[in-house]
Amino acid sequence: MDALPESLNRLIDGLSDFPGIGKKTAERMAFYLLKSNDGWAQNLAKAIMDVKEQIHECPICHNISDTSPCSICSDTKRDPSLLCVVEDTTDLVVFEKTNHFRGKYHVLGGVLSPLDGIGPEDLHFDTLLERINGEEEVIIATNPNAEGETTALYLAKLLKEHNIKVTRLASGIPVGGDLEYTDEATLVSALEGRREI
Predict the structure, then answer these.
(1) Nearest to 191 by CA among 167, 156, 159
(2) How many helices (H) and strands (E) does the chain have?
(3) Backbone φ and ψ of 20, nearest 5°
(4) Whole-angstrom distance, CA of residue 173 vs CA of residue 102
(5) For a Cys-Cys bond, which of 16, 52, 80, 195 suits 26, CB 3.0-4.6 Å?
(6) Domains along the sequence of the chain with CATH
């Protein structure tokens, strides 16, 4: 017989579904929530529901946003001739934290991974091709791992057929690493030293 109430067990199970959160940490979080005042818990619950109800994908770049189009796509001060292609929104956020890149973005929604059944039709390649007009530089900023490199090569071939200048982030980001965990100085260096592929 379990010593904890069923509702608390459900909360612990739900919290332990978060990436990097084990059962013990989820249990500590659940007890913290249990001991917190009702107003704090209600604000947290409302914030979670607001995110689920109000955040959607930008129809242009596929970034997440609560406006349509997103604030980056509607920013007229950004350079429309530079388009940085990233795997997902977390990578876009990393670039934005550098305050260095002033172009626009395109979020693929993942990378090519035949072993996981993810092919070109599962990513936002079609809307990328719709956005380009032949005058841009497309910077491919996928992670420097096997799937990211495969996706970069596929994209480079696809874009070269449309006479687009295609560049790849320079070295400096370790092979096998993730952009999400790369420090800002390394990311700026990689962005400045990008190369055509």
Answers:
(1) 167
(2) 7, 7
(3) 80, 0
(4) 20
(5) 16
(6) 6-54 (1.10.8.420), 64-196 (3.40.1360.10)
Find the DSSP H helices in the chain. Answer: 6-15, 23-35, 38-54, 89-98, 125-131, 146-160, 184-192
CA-CA-CA-CA dihedral for 97, 103, 108, 114, to nearest 10: -90
**Sign, CA torsion 178/123/155/111:** positive
The number of residues in the chain equals: 197
Helices (H), 55-181: 89-98, 125-131, 146-160
Q: How far is CA 78 from the centre of its chain?
A: 19
Beta strands, E only, 97-151: 104-107, 137-140
Angle at 137 between CA 93 and CA 81, to 5 degrees: 80
